[in-house]
Amino acid sequence: MQAELLHEARRQAEICNACRYCEGYCAVFPALHRERAFADGDLTQLANLCHNCRGCYYACQYTAPHEFDLNLPRALAEVRQASWEDFAWPAPLARAFQRNGLMIALAAAIGFAVLFWAARTFLPAGGDGFYAVMAHGTMIAIFLPAFLLPLASLAIGLRRYWRATGGGDIRLSDVAAAFGSAAKLRNLTGGHGDGCNFEDRDRFSHARRHMHQAVMYGFLLCFAATSVATLMHYALDMPAPYGFWSLPKLLGVSGGVLLTLGCAGMVALKLRADRNLGAPSAWGGEIGFVLLLGFVALSGLLLYVLGQTGLMPALLVAHLGAVLAFFLLTPFTKMAHGFYRLAALAREAANQRAVRMTGGETGP
């Protein structure tokens, strides 16, 4: 199947390389136009550069019913999805999630919540707030491995990606350029800065970029809240619970609001968009991931609002179950695409630097 996807992506890339109408649309086309032939690694790199904004499809004169039948967003999305499944470790889990993502996310979150609820009976708790339901040491013993194991899995996947796309050296300036592009989501602004056509071929919009930014920065704020709380607990001897005006709470609540709104917006956009312009087989996995992440954020906010009521224990185990499912499934969900896309952007920055050093031309 992977060979068929690469063959079709190669066919379409060669046609696009001859046409060059979409050269300024995003980072894909300058990279594509630098090549004369496309090895499998080149196509994998192009696929992970693609943000699936779909502007090129709606501008293309060679889409169906033309005999060329171009659908580059779908071709690259399918190669991209297949590459994540192949690079992931262990790969069978990635394939299973992409085919049945919604059910796996739901089953994992509910299953872990039930286990947390059962643990309350057998494991002693103590302390204030959430620690009256589940001991701090128990949470650390569960979530520390659940955080580290996915990082190890992602590291293996990224190493495989880097080798498959050609290896080579990379500089700090290339990494900085990649983070700068990701921070602004530059490749979702469209060729003229008007936005993309993700949800409607006749309307340019920045909605998808804004929803992605809400999710990205919301997640980073929540991660910062957890990091600050860890520092306060262990280094400053200031254990939780913390008041609203404390830094962990301010970061966490603002991040939770952004995450909730961003995930809701992403689901709405995906429901309106044409599934045939992405990887249709992965649609359920993508929706499952977004819903899981959105529930993590929403349940966290509800915990803050209802943390002093009798609903707190049930909300806590539901939230912890969703968080644990999210962490353990991260290497096999759409969450992994952020890491691969950063690697692709860093490689593209390195490629552009190499072209400049040799006196050649490169795209914008």
From TrEMBL:
Keywords in alphabetical order: Membrane, Transmembrane, Transmembrane helix
Bilayer-spanning residue ranges: 101-119, 131-156, 214-235, 250-271, 283-305, 311-332
Superkingdom, natural source: Bacteria
NCBIfam families in the cross-refs: CitB
Protein name: Tricarballylate utilization 4Fe-4S protein TcuB
Gene name per UniProt: tcuB
